[in-house]
Amino acid sequence: MTVELRHLRCLVAIVETGTFTDAAIELGVSQAAVSRGLAALEGELGTRLLRRSARQVTLTTAGQRVLDRARRVLAEVGQLVEEAGGTATRLRIGHAWSAMGRHTLDFQRRWAVQQPGTELRLVRTNSPTAGLADGACDVAVLRVPPDPQRFDSALVGVERRVCAVATDDPWARRRSLRMAEIAERTLLVDRRTGTTTPELWPEGARPAVSHTQDVDDWLTVIATGRCVGVTAEATAAQYQRPGVTYRPIRDAEPVAVRLAWWRDDPHPASPAAVALLTELYRRS
Q1: N or C, which end of the chain has less CB nearby within 10 Å?
Q2: DSSP assignments along the chain, one per residue
Q3: What was the pLDDT predicted at 85?
């Protein structure tokens, strides 16, 4: 079997950009080269990785498994090259939805001052570990506990829960809401990466649930008034959208915010990131 890095890069680029044309632009090659790279990978693995239609490209079940591993392999190769050349000077922080909320910009500015020799990159990856499991980042901002068998983590702060409603909803004129009221509405939930589950409510008093898989879709549906959403206040800070209003929930448990990293492969800059973000949350 001869699987080459360029084959893996073709798969990742197609998925991340959404089209073969954009993947070719991203990689700096021809569209034909991208098609050949994917075909070679599928041929070597003996399975189809993508479903292609006139409008979209979607992963097969096998494709999702290969994509996760491909991202990690490429990340590890990149890290190997950096370390071999003595240039491991980059920290990638992953997040699924809202990064560090209202602390995001302050964190970036302070990092540049405190750690001038380590480039900071924020990477949004819509996965339960915010890209950590598949190698898309070195450290991840998580609002759900990571698997302790695979990852170490540090609690850096807590955030209030807020309810997202359509701007023309009567609730948008309220100063605050209660959990029992929200249980009477249809709740829009991202079950892959979100912080909200029906289990936040007592059994027998839980809201009806609809599902989404992306923060942009979540906001779009809420703006229509069909559903409401419950999320960490960081979402309100990062996603101010026309048609969506956020209101605090008086009696909801706060959301714990953690930084997580691989137990067997911590990035040397992880302690500095934990210290800085903990300081920012503590000040607020």
Answers
A1: N
A2: ----HHHHHHHHHHHHHSSHHHHHHHHTS-HHHHHHHHHHHHHHHTS--EEE-SS-EEE-HHHHHHHHHHHHHHHHHHHHHHHHTT---EEEEEESS-TTGGGHHHHHHHHHHH-TTSEEEEEE--STTTTTTTTS-SEEEESS---TTTEEEEEEEEE-EEEEEETTSGGGGSS-B-HHHHTTSEEEEETTT-S--GGGS-TTSPPEEEEESSHHHHHHHHHHTS-BEEEEHHHHHH---TTEEEEEBTTPPPEEEEEEEETTS--TTHHHHHHHHHHHHHH-
A3: 54
Q: How confident is the model at residue 101 (pLDDT cuts 50, 70, 90)?
A: very high
Provide, rounded to the nearest whole percent, the portion of the chain with pLDDT above 70. 96
Q: In the CATH scheme, what is the code of domain 161-253?
A: 3.40.190.10
Say whether pLDDT at 86 is over 80.
no
Question: Averaged over 177-188, what is the pLDDT?
Answer: 97
Residue 110 CA: distances (Å) to CA of 107, 201, 273: 5, 39, 10
Higher pLDDT, 78 or 266: 266
> What is the value of pTM for the model shown?
0.71
Question: Is there a common fold for 89-158+256-283 and 161-253?
Answer: yes
Fold of the domain built from segment(s) 5-82: Arc Repressor Mutant, subunit A (1.10.10)
**CA-wise closest residue to 70 among 159, 131, 141:** 131
Cα dist from 17 to 10, 78, 135, 282, whole Å: 11, 20, 18, 38
Q: What percent of the chain has pLDDT over 90?
A: 66
CATH fold for domain 89-158+256-283: D-Maltodextrin-Binding Protein; domain 2 (3.40.190)
Mean pLDDT across the chain: 91
